[in-house]
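User: Fold both of these, please.

Assistant: Here is the first one.
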Amino acid sequence: MIRNIIWLSIMVLLISCGGDDGPPPAPEGAELIFPEENSECTTGVEINQSSTQITFRWGASNHTESYSLIVLNLETNVTQTINTESTSASVTVSKGTPYAWSVTSRNTSSDQVASSPTWLFYNAGSQTTYAPFPAQLVSPLSGSTVQKDIANEVLLVWSGADADNDMDTFEVFFSDTNPPTTSIGVTDASTISSTMEMPVSVESGTVYYWRVVATDLEGNASISGVFDFKVL
């Protein structure tokens, strides 16, 4: 009897110690600090006539052991990635050039990662005015397959920003050839909402290509990348 009680106590102890505490907490997204969103960055160490070194900064995020700083040149689509355990990192960037940057949070105890928002900025150059940031195409995602609506249309969605706050228009180019050269409309961009939208007529089984040209009041223009999608 005593032996049975001892064994029962051991089993209860093992069960209580081996309980499932659930998966480890996933990292959370970092809060970006500098360079500021949609700004002209004038702070940096000059490397040469064409480039400066900028120190990117962000806030520490919960449940995070390391970060990946991702800096994208919006003119060349070349990405620089810096892995660090700190909340800052220095990157050499070209003068007078638009960039996008974000931070990915990681924890070795979790297989999940968290991404910060993506901020845009211009690295200061010799120019006194800047073209708008290239429009960020949101939907449909490039390479996706989409369903047309009852009116045989698909909604194109993009966002835009301008460091000088003098955005004028967005012109949308859309066709079944790459690159798209057919202008299907110009949208007033003087008051930019979080996203812009334009419906387009489509046919099933066709692959379409689209891009957006952003222009400011001084005539400076920037061209987005080309996205493609297929219609079911």
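And the second sequence with its predicted structure:
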Amino acid sequence: MRVLGVDPGLTRCGVGVVEGVAGRPLTMLGVGVVRTAADADIGVRLVGIERGIEEWLDRFEPELVAVERVFAQHNVRTVMGTAQASAVAMLCASRRGIPVALHTPSEVKAAVTGSGRADKAQVGAMVTRLLRLSAPPKPADAADALALAICHIWRAPAQNRLQQAVAQNRLQQAVARHQAAQQQASAPQQATTPHQASAVKGRTR
């Protein structure tokens, strides 16, 4: 599986491509940052992020794009910019028919380091170790993008099993409802005797 991880941000949008399967060594194919000028118009910045992500999609042709799920922060301006960059990444992938997966920061940290409260230095160190790199990717946004890709590759088998179990359960419920409806439809209607009809008629008067 080849996954493009995207750590969304307006000024620095981390991107990283990882290839492999769960349980086996993973390989980094590329890592970098899509940058935009902080003093540029928001529309221009979003177009710049779009072009940057499109270039990565053209170059590496990933099977899936993993994006960090936006969560509430005290700085509303920061979370808005993150959400806008995240939307651009999802749009670029969806326009090409590439599936998109969202992972929270705590999910990524837990998958890569074993702790959902790990700091950026710990995440960078584990990414370096897992991908057998000579040094942690810089800046931290790039390391976070690789961590997103690693997280999805490792979590995908479990998620697929869960989705299959849910689908199987829904199928069983649908079959049970269908069988119950058929039994009810095929059940013989109870005949009404003249005495019963007279009693019913009497009660309705």
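Residues 159-165 have pLDDT under 50 and may be disordered.
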